[in-house]
Design goal:
alpha+beta, 10-stranded mixed beta sheet, 5-stranded mixed beta sheet, about 25% helix, globular
Length: about 650
């Protein structure tokens, strides 16, 4: 009865209702669909032509006629647009209408990207103006260059993974449905470009945020028929020429003002910034960012603070804006709280807090050209998660601003658990530079973390390329402790390098759990099974890695990964994973291990085997694949990570 209901809810609909449903999905997800087409189209077209073509492909994705309308899937009941946030990368994953339009847009973009294919969409077309997306910074330009070297299917695979956060298996299906002959090859090519989901959401890749420039003004002024169009173009030109040069006046790199209501003016007034007294944290109800005092030698520089607030509300064309996944970049709703204003190396830095986000403004010490604005979500942050912020990174190092309750700071190599920590100098809450693993390149031979104490305990935080370092814990999910203890350090040592997979992913905390130890069939000792789970600030996108380390090996190897899964987390403290292992004698085995409450493990597919308890060893052939299922003590069946 239940399966029949599900089938009815997902059955295709036809007629006007289906077209209206598709149109509603197009309106709701239009910015994402246009961005998808823009990123897949060949960069050689030019940014302006590519933007208009992306709009044309998205608008032409609606079905035509009864036959096309019959292919539109019905919207599942209870999943209306009111429950989705169009800005969320996962907002369309349960919307069949969005999936249908995404496939049509992707197919059209791939077709348009083929050599000798005409790209002259009839609509939209703008006469007398040249429309181009906003300029990006060095990171955006570098990513666009890397994407231009990929084929169109590879760009599509990269964008589907970065924008819609889809697993590789789902991406293969979508590419196949869009007419790609070799989805596996496209995914392999996409892997050559490092994952940078935050950059894909940059305004530099947003064809819906266009800048207008005049085109053929002089020629059109010579034609009487085009007089009206020339006047309009000259008006646009005059408005553009009236814009001050970047670096002008008290607002620095900010764009022209557009918000004149009293609330907006109050939010941009440096005199109304919230400033917490230095001793307020002693009696504060919560140990979070709201208890931080304003620190730094430039907290009285009203011109600097005015520029920071203005750029936050109206970032100019040349301002580099970045945000962790799921973080909004709009201006503050009211006067934010000032946490820091000072100099760092050759830059002036301002850090602000609006109750939900940390915003860091940075400008060169000799002007405002090259200003940057970075955002990170911190809603619900307290204790360890609200005790350190990244002030800046340079020359492979990072400097932190620490909470006022931090009494001592040091550095520690996570891969050397027995080595003592190195004391770190702290001046007015600012640490001396320490090595940043987020900036490291080449082989992973060390992983430097920040160790700090607040009078109630010692904790570890790791820089993962964001404004807020990730809090490291160790132990069984739901009962994990601090990673700074001896057991936590031993648990993290073999698996520290796996933190590199979570760079710039909006990570809030990462836990390491040694959940099993498995004797090896050749008598060479016991292998160590661990699960590391990264929780995010936005709630979704949590990643669980199953890792296995053989005796004598310094590093663990990732054997399975689960994204958007509850496994190995507080809500579901269970995990099951397996690995093909070759003994010293040259024999291949399937090794599988579940969490301690696993009472049976079953393997199917390329390997058929079963074993009672939480461990399984089965002979296997090289390259064999198996699907794992485990039975828990209460009878529940869990799937293995893969």
């Amino acid at each position: 009865m239940q399966s029949q209901d599900v089938a009815q809810r997902h059955a295709p609909a036809s007629g006007p209702a289906a077209v209206e449903r598709a149109e509603a999905a197009l309106v709701e997800h239009y910015p994402r669909l246009v961005r998808l087409a823009y990123l897949v189209l060949p960069p050689g077209l030019g940014r302006g032509r590519r933007a208009l073509t992306a709009h044309a492909l998205a608008q032409r994705a609606l079905p035509r006629g009864r036959r096309g309308a019959a292919r539109v899937p019905a919207q599942p009941s209870g999943r209306g647009s009111a429950r989705r946030n169009p800005g969320d990368p996962a907002s369309g994953e349960n919307d069949p209408g969005y999936a249908y339009l995404r496939e049509r847009v992707l197919r059209a973009a791939l077709t348009a990207a083929r050599p000798h294919r005409g790209l002259t969409p009839p609509l939209p077309r703008v006469w007398g103006l040249r429309l181009v997306p906003r300029s990006g910074g060095a990171d955006e330009l570098a990513l666009e260059q890397r994407l231009s070297e990929l084929s169109a299917p590879a760009r599509a695979a990269y964008v589907l993974r970065g924008l819609d956060r889809l697993p590789d298996q789902e991406i293969r299906k979508i590419l196949k449905a869009a007419g790609v002959d070799d989805p596996g090859g496209a995914l392999a090519s996409a892997n050559s470009v490092p994952a940078q989901p935050g950059l894909l959401s940059s305004p530099a890749f947003d064809p819906c945020a266009l800048q207008a420039r005049p085109t053929d003004l002089l020629r059109r002024r010579q034609h009487t028929r085009a007089a009206l169009g020339a006047v309009a173009a000259l008006a646009v030109c005059g408005a553009l020429l009236a814009l001050p040069h970047p670096g002008w006046g008290p607002d620095g790199a900010a764009a022209p003002a557009y918000a004149e209501n009293p609330a907006a003016r109050a939010a941009l007034d440096p005199a109304r910034l919230t400033r917490v007294p230095p001793t307020a944290w002693h009696s504060a109800a919560r140990t979070d960012f709201s208890a931080w005092p304003a620190r730094g030698p430039l907290t009285g520089d009203k011109d600097l603070l005015r520029r920071a607030l203005a750029v936050w509300a109206r970032p100019g064309q040349r301002v580099r804006v970045s945000a962790t996944p799921g973080t909004q970049t709009g201006g503050p709703a009211g006067p934010p709280q000032l946490l820091y204003a000072g100099r760092l190396d050759s830059a002036r830095v301002v850090i602000l807090y609006d109750g939900l986000r940390i915003a860091r403004y940075a400008e060169p010490a000799d002007g405002t050209e090259g200003a940057a604005m970075d955002f990170a979500r911190v809603d619900g942050a307290t204790g360890a998660e609200a005790s350190a912020l990244v002030l800046g990174r340079a020359d492979g190092n990072v400097q932190y601003l620490l909470a006022p309750w931090v009494t001592k700071a040091a550095t520690r190599d996570l891969m050397k658990p027995a080595a003592p920590p190195t004391p770190l100098t702290v001046t007015d809450g600012v640490t001396a530079p320490l090595t940043s693993p987020a900036l490291a390149t080449g082989n992973c031979t060390s992983w430097t973390v920040l160790q700090w104490s607040d009078g109630s305990g010692t904790r570890l935080s790791s820089d993962l390329g964001e404004l807020v370092p990730a809090h490291l814990t160790a132990g069984r999910p739901g009962a994990a402790g601090e990673a700074a203890g001896p057991e936590g350090l031993r648990a993290w040592a073999p698996f520290a390098c796996s933190l590199a997979t979570e760079r710039s992913a909006g990570v809030r905390s990462v836990n390491a759990w040694d959940y099993a130890e498995q004797p090896l069939p050749d008598g060479s000792g016991a292998g160590q099974w661990a699960c590391t789970r990264a929780e995010t600030w936005r709630g979704d996108g949590a990643a669980a890695l199953a890792q296995f380390r053989v005796p004598g090996s310094r590093y663990g190897a990732v054997t399975a990964k689960g994204t958007d899964t509850a496994a190995c987390g507080p809500r579901d403290p269970h995990v099951l994973a397996g690995v093909l292992w070759k003994s010293r004698g040259g024999h291949w085995y399937l090794l599988a291990a579940g969490s301690p409450d696993t009472v049976a493990i079953h393997a199917s597919g390329g390997i058929t085997a079963s074993a009672p308890g939480s461990l399984m060893i089965s002979k296997a052939a090289k390259g064999a694949r198996a699907e794992l299922k485990g039975t828990l003590a209460g009878g529940r069946v869990i799937d293995g990570l893969h």
